[in-house]
Amino acid sequence: MTSRRKLTSVLLGLVVLGVLVSGVAAERSLRRDRLDRVARSLEERAALVAEQVRGATLEGAYSRQLDLIADRLGKAGGMRLTFIDAEGTVVGDSQVPHERLAGVENHGDRTEVRAALDGRVGTSTRRSATVGRELFYLAHPVEGGGVVRVAVDLSELEAAVAALRARLLFAGVVGLVVAVGLSYGISRYSLRTIEEMRRTADAIARGRLEDRLPLHTDDELGQISRSINQMAEQLRLRLDDVTREKEQLHAVLESMVEGVLVVDAKGTVVLANSRLREFYRVPSEIVGRPLLETIRDAELDELLREVAQSDDRVARSLSKRSGAPGTLRVQASRFPTGPGPRAGTVAVFHDISELERLEEVRRDFVANASHELRTPLTAIHGFAETLLTNEGLSEDDRRSYLGIIDRHSQRLGNIVNDLLALSAIERGRVPIEPTDTDVSSHAEMALRDAEPRCRERRLEVRCVVDGTPIAHVDPRALDQILTNLLDNAIKYTEPGGRIEVRVGCERDRIRVEVEDSGIGIPDEDLARIFERFYRVDKARSRALGGTGLGLSIVKHAVQSMGGEISVESRLGEGTTFSFTLPVARIG
User: Which residue in 97, 160, 342, 459 has its CB near the most CB atoms, within 10 A?
Assistant: First the structure.
């Protein structure tokens, strides 16, 4: 039931109660007033009758005469008049024939009669056993003995009361109708502000914090409206702060290179950023789900259980799951720290796969560099020691040994020079002076420089140019790139093979390809071909005089000029090195 209906019902109940109470009170008051008036009137009449019969003896001997007087006076006064002697015997009655008086019972025990016999005026209301109607009796003592009793029929009184009751009922119905209208109007007016409060409170509960209550009055309801408006404004401001902080937190978490995972005390995921989902290759809908249901990693679950039992931070390296290669370094701690129940655990994941790969590359570089340097140093040391300790060597042997020492020292110098050049390129210490350069002319010049070696190995060499490939590059770096790639192709192409250099334009890039029909590169070696000192065929590379740094120099030189390099190869069929360069600026 709504408040309006409740208030209307209460008002109607009050009106009905008021009508009933006032009706009953009015009826009783009317009845009492009419009875008082009847009593006074009867008392006056009884006094007059008593005065007329004063001094007479109300005895049976005078019964007929008294009965005639009763009939005459009763008819004249519109009342029932009864004469009763001192013994209570009825000796005259205006409504009882004289012949039946002897059969009327003694009235000495009647209330009003006893009072009159005691010298007082007595009254009583009851149903008459003699005439069979409801009568109001008043008995007056008569001087000399006896009682004059007068009575009137109460039907007139009841009719008047009934008429009053009908009028009260009509007035009550009219009052109820008016009360319904008034109560509805009053309730609507009184509850309008409350209804607006309810609607506004519902709107605020649904999140519409911009809704406000109109201020109609300055009473208590108006003050409550102001309080609700202030509460809504405070909620809006706090919600804006929370939303802004949540967005900031989300932006920070999504921009982190580390993965972040937060689980509650039951192991349910509370927060997980995209980096973590990327590590484990899980869908984004993992918040609110058990951890083991989304990330099936027993080691991670064991780590989080260990953290839950300790206040110390726990760090451990875990392998990625779901087919993602690499290693994750996880640091986890419970919150809040200190004694008391645990609310949850937060874990931060660092991807150290690249660090491990770089560490492996570093170890390989140290090992390869040591091996590359040790070979010429060993040869130089061995032949120098032979020359110093063996004085009986012939001149030809001495010259041969000195030639070997010279070749290995040159190789050692080439390795050192290439290392220095590569280090300088990586650190950006080699000045790059880009200018608009015709790439095709530099490619043809590199082929002319390599022509004697190609002719010696009976290699077919040609240059294919498409369009006008003008690149914005450093000419010296370009020559170094082309020279290294051609040198590599000549070394690993069997006699009678083919080498082709293609130069063309691709939108805003110049593309250069160096293709050979050489021995090719195995698929497992393609990913590492640009690493320092990495050799596919180590024995053949050293025999051909390579340092193992040429392709590394090529890669860093291309990247330093804003280009990209790639390689495609099929074992036994040949290799194609492709690199792109920025096109020359127009104007």
Answer: 459
Q: Which residues contact 434 (CB under 8 A, 6 or more apart)?
A: 472, 473, 474, 561, 582
User: If you average pLDDT over each of 143-147, 366-370, 437-441, 547-551, which comes out highest?
Assistant: 437-441
**Pair 422, 556: CB distance under 8 Å:** yes
In a domain, 226, yes or no: no
Do 410 and 442 reside in the same domain of the chain?
no
Question: In the listed set 387, 405, 426, which residue is the last one of a domain according to the structure?
Answer: 426
pTM > 0.90: yes or no: no
Q: How many CA atoms lie within 13 A of 362 on its CB side?
A: 6
Residue reference for tokens 């009851």: 126
Element (H or E) spanning 470, and its range? strand 470-473
Residues 439 and 535 in one domain: yes
- 3-state per-residue secondary structure call for 267-280: CEEEEECHHHHHHH
Residue type, 288: G
Phi, psi of 312 (to 5 degrees): -85, 155
Residue span of the structural domain in which 306 resides: 258-349
pLDDT value at residue 543: 46
Looking up residue 417, the CATH number of its domain turns out to be 1.10.287.130
Whether residue 365 is found in the same domain as residue 470: no
The helix (H) or strand (E) run that includes residue 91 is strand 90-93
How distant, in Å, are the alpha carbons of 49, 184, 302, 311 from that of 338?
112, 63, 21, 6
Where among 306, 321, 349 does a domain terminate?
Answer: 349
Q: State the Cα–Cα distance between residues 503 and 483, nearest whole angstrom.
A: 15
